[in-house]
Amino acid sequence: CESATRTSVALIINALPTVSATVTPSSGAVCIGSNATLTGVGASTYTYTGGVTNATPFAPTTTNPLPAAPIVSDKEYCFNETAVALTATNLANHNLGWYGTNATGGTSESTAPTPLTNTVGSSTYYVSQTNIANSCESPRAAININIKALPPTPAITSNSPVCEGAALTLNTTNIAGAIYYWEGVNGFTSSSVNPTINNATSAIAGSYSLKIKFNGCVSPLSTPLVVAVNPIPAAPTVSSNSPVEEDKTLNLTASNVSGATYAWSGPNGFASLQQNPSITASLLNAGSYYATLTLNGCTSANSSPIIVVITPKSSPVFQIPNAFTPNSDGHNDVFRIVENGYVKTLTSFR
Q1: Of 206, 223, 232, 349, which Cα lies nearest the Cα of 295?
Q2: Residues 164 and 196 grouped into a single domain
């Protein structure tokens, strides 16, 4: 049965909203490990295919792979060595980004840093590379920097002063694994620990220095060592009062050199350190005599020899008068015996 009256019903038909949506990033493609965000405009509630709600990050279907970290190598420097900017090998169409010593966070720089070398120790620098086409950034590569200490300044000695013709020896401490760099006068160089210069001359006198290289680092230069080479003095000029009669005094004489010491040698084991020795002559003292002198530690060659002649004592000769006249007339008043000087004692018997 139908009612007698009809009630009207108002029907409102709303227009469909104009809805737009944006995706961040706009390409909808992100790097692996990142999210995209959808944002709708023109309505109050939104439903997206796949169940993603408005303005909520979601995993997009298109992802770009991250580039590999750039290729790097660790660096070593010696203390206060001049360092250069760090380097890394990046892929084509990729830019390097330097983060200093920041393993995470921080802002990358396009200019590579130069390590400081004024402190001994280790530090680490970080660098990544970014794909220019999709802005995907690689993990950071670590560059380890090691600043090594210098070897200690070497201490050096020598056997200076030396005499001409002798060997000059330079000395220092032997360090296993070290390389030695000696330098000196007239372009002298040596890599020996304790070098020797044979047949020294005045030309090698002067200043010598040493530096060593150990663990790749070179020490400071040593304090200069000044060496001296003393000349060999000339042999002395010698003389004597030869010939000398037996039991008389033999005098040996050498030319005077200030500051020198002397050494004589001769026959029958004769030796003396006097400059001008004197001896009571005997027949055994006859022969060749030599002298040397020493000055500033250097000894001369033997002098030219002097030949000493010792003459035997002569037999006494007496002159005995055969008469005398003790009459006080001043003539032949005394009985006087005269000898030739070789008689020390004359005894008369009555």
Answers
A1: 232
A2: yes
On the CB side of 189, CA atoms within 13 Å amount to 7
Note if the pTM is more than 0.85: no
Q: Which domain holds residue 169?
A: 157-230
Same domain, 261 and 307: yes
Give pLDDT tens digits for 25-52.
666 567 887 777 767 776 667 666 655 5
Percent of the chain residues topping a pLDDT of 70 = 83
Classified as helix, coil or strand, 27 is coil
Residue 275's CATH number? 2.60.40.10
Coil, helix or strand for 190? strand
Angle 116-119-123 from CA coordinates, rounded to 5°: 65
Total domains in the chain come to 4
CA distances (Å), 208 to each of 158, 186, 189, 205, 307, in order? Answer: 10, 10, 9, 9, 48
Longest CA span, the chain: 229
Distance CA 185, CA 229 (A): 13
Which residue, of 64, 85, 120, is where some domain finishes?
A: 64
**102 vs 99: CA distance, rounded Å:** 6
